[in-house]
């Protein structure tokens, strides 16, 4: 397991920092070459703007994050490069949906996505849609990604006051528990209908687990690390 730190926190406080990362200038050629390789393998990729964390700290049981805007190509180059020497982290929001019968929803990313075949909570890297002024609304990002990927929205989705931050290599997963008053079977049916109606669904398989031991092969390490903190006392 590559997880290096786990913190139960009371909230996520994100801010957009001024300026951009020097990496996009100093590593321009390498980023462009990486993007050319990625799009040759997957033409569906889009080089939009995402928000990557340049500052991450836990202060008074709250996770404070300072974000800068970067191209998606930069994020992919950093991700595929591995390590954290370049400092920028993908600090993303994730929804841990818990059914009325105590099971947690995991999903596999569909073919053609940047994370094809990987299994984790409904989640996504924040972008401009998550900005409210200079505030990066991670809780709002979690709600948005959950709606886009599964069709589950309020009032069916009830965000709980249980959050965990997990450091895993170049990622910081900002996970919030979302309670849903449906059984796992009912959630599966509802999400399945949502995916069937999508022209290009982001997910292609659903799993429901009660513990890290039940997580399927392909589930990311941060998911296994998060489950006991989201389900336990």
Series of H and E elements: EEHHEEHEEEEEEHEEHEH
Total number of beta strands: 13
Let me know the largest β-sheet.
5 strands, mixed
Low-confidence stretches: none
The N- and C-terminal alpha carbons lie at a distance of 23 Å
Percentage of residues assigned to helices: 25-40%
Number of discrete helical segments: 6
Dominant shape: globular
Give the mean pLDDT.
Answer: 93
Plain-language structure description:
With 233 residues, the protein is an alpha+beta fold. Helix content is 28%, strand content 37%. It contains six helices and 13 strands. The strands form three sheets. It has a five-stranded mixed β-sheet with strand order 1-11-12-5-8. α2 crosses α3 (72-81).
What is the topology?
Elements: E1 3-9, E2 11-16, H1 23-26, H2 28-41, E3 49-59, E4 62-71, H3 72-81, E5 90-98, E6 104-109, E7 119-120, E8 123-124, E9 131-132, E10 135-136, H4 138-150, E11 157-168, E12 171-180, H5 184-197, E13 203-209, H6 221-231
Parallel strand pairs: 2-4, 5-12
Antiparallel strand pairs: 1-11, 2-10, 3-4, 5-8, 6-7, 6-13, 9-10, 11-12
Helix pairs in contact: 2-3
Which descriptors apply to this entry?
single chain; 233 residues; 6 helices; 13 strands; 37% strand
